[in-house]
Amino acid sequence: MDYITAKEAAEKWGISQRRVQVLCEQGRVDGAKRLGWVWAIPKDAPKPADARFKREDREETMIHAKEDSYQNRRG
């Protein structure tokens, strides 16, 4: 199996090297191995899906929080 570095994966996936390292630390890159201070990532590993909040989700949550707050004040 061929491996690439976090820097090479970052260039391939269009994200920062640090983000690749975090994804590896979280176990979200299948087959990634830590060799000392360097991550070895399978060359054919797909880019993990972004599981962080999306803007629409955050806005919807804020709208519901405001509605709940307003209803609680009215009694």
Using brief descriptors, characterize the structure shown.
single chain; 75 residues; alpha+beta; three-stranded antiparallel beta sheet; 3 strands; Putative transposase
Write up this protein.
- The chain is of the alpha+beta class and 75 residues long.
- 49% of the residues lie in helices and 13% in strands.
- The chain has 3 helices and 3 strands.
- Strands 1-3-2 form a 3-stranded antiparallel β-sheet.
- Strand 2 (33-35) and strand 3 form a beta hairpin.
- Helix 1 (6-13) packs across helix 2.
- The radius of gyration is 19 Å and the shape is rod-shaped.
- The mean pLDDT is 86.
Can you tell me the residue ranges where pLDDT is under 50 for at least 5 consecutive residues? none
How many E strands? 3
Question: What is the general shape?
Answer: rod-shaped
Oligomer: single chain
- Spatial sequence of strands, sheet with the most strands: 1-3-2
